[in-house]
Task: structure prediction
Amino acid sequence: MPLPHLDDLESEAIHILREVAGQCGNPALLFSGGKDSVVLLRLAEKAFRPGRFPFPLLHIDTGHNYLEVIAFRDRRVAELGERLIVRTLEESIAQGRVVLRSPDESRNRHQSVTLLDAVAEFQFDALIGGARRDEEKARAKERVFSFRDRFGQWDPKAQRPELWNLYNARIHPGEHIRAFPISNWTELDVWRYIQQERLE
Result:
């Protein structure tokens, strides 16, 4: 049975995706094959099909993904016929841009270097991600359109108001936006949407 509040969340997310596509010159959608990015992919389908997505998919690979997840990622991208850009933390390590303290150190906190390198390489002005406000306290302060400086940092006090679902994507040189269409979703909403949409 469809859940009405999921319909509302879906509608809001599709609106945000279309706002990013309409206001930004060179966005990308972050897609790792995880649950949140699988939901984003379905929302992008609903927002833009039968046409092609107005942005490529981007995966920052830490090198610690399960092989099944990478295979799933590649299969979904091929099914959709979309463009996938992959940049790896291994490349950043090889270039000396990332130095691990030990071989078994978690790589998650280092992937921002690879991400910012990809932003500079492709001159992305917006990255669409699957972050949600319920994930951690810092996220609760973040807007749907989160403005980042040239170092990828965001200042909670400098975020623009988002009244009546109106978004302003104007940026200065060197800045980019992180857009979070499922910011208002909970983890339970994500799992229920996956069930409702019968997503793999």
